[in-house]
Amino acid sequence: MTTSSSTPRRADYALGLLNELLAQTPVGDKLKPERELAAEFGVSRRVIRDALDQLESQGRIVRTPGRGTVVQDHPSLQGSLRALGGEPAPQLPRAQEDKTLSQIESFTVPDAVILGSSPIDLMNARLVLEPAIAATAAMHASTQDIHSMQDLIERGRQAQTPHEWEHWDSALHQRIGDATHNQLLQYFYRVLSVARSQTEWGRLRQQTLNTKNQQLYSEQHAAILQAIQARAPQEAAECMRTHLHTVKRTLIDGIDL
């Protein structure tokens, strides 16, 4: 009884201390190894590891084999606003917050926007947004995000039909958007996904997709992931831009639009 009730308290205690430490550590600096943090805080390495898992899922730190734990963002925007003399936005009650998120998730793109957008319009929009999304993912992607991207790339490589390939390709790009841990960027990419699924894009993409192009796209996906995994925002953006230009050129060369 004592053990089970004390474990959450130790976890909360460690998380609180880590939050304080993050607030005092410049973005880009590395934290001490787990064993040193555990000794300093007087808790087990498992407790430290669980707290770091939670912080990584929030995009505040990034853990990379061989590089350690790097600070990605400060935990308290509220505190920063107060320090600048500003007032933070009021917190929504949990029920109201859930309702707001539900309304956002259920939002649909107007038919007029979809029907009035050509595949080239879609590609141009993707060229504006997705390089920035890839760069942001390189700064904030968690270990779980990267593992998921690796899995999706492999599933794309094994796709047997254009329809199957398109499914995994779309899922990968959405996962990169999710890896930004930025709700606005995630939302913007979902708008692109809706347009991608409802315009002439799907038909044209399947007409121009062949084994050679599929292999090339898979290689470009791997390059994007490598840049994200290396925490190289500019490289990630450039790899994404190269990939999208390749796709756009294939569409234009393959079909008289």
TrEMBL record:
Domain HTH gntR-type: 7-74
Record bears the keyword Transcription: yes
PANTHER family: TRANSCRIPTIONAL REGULATOR, GNTR FAMILY, UXU OPERON TRANSCRIPTIONAL REGULATOR
Protein name: DNA-binding FadR family transcriptional regulator
Signal peptide: none
Organism superkingdom: Bacteria
Keywords, sorted A to Z: DNA-binding, Transcription, Transcription regulation
Gene Ontology molecular function: DNA binding; DNA-binding transcription factor activity
Gene3D superfamilies reported in the protein's UniProt record: GntR ligand-binding domain-like (1.20.120.530), Winged helix-like DNA-binding domain superfamily/Winged helix DNA-binding domain (1.10.10.10)
UniProt-listed Pfam families: FCD, GntR
SUPFAM superfamilies attached to this UniProt entry: GntR ligand-binding domain-like, Winged helix' DNA-binding domain
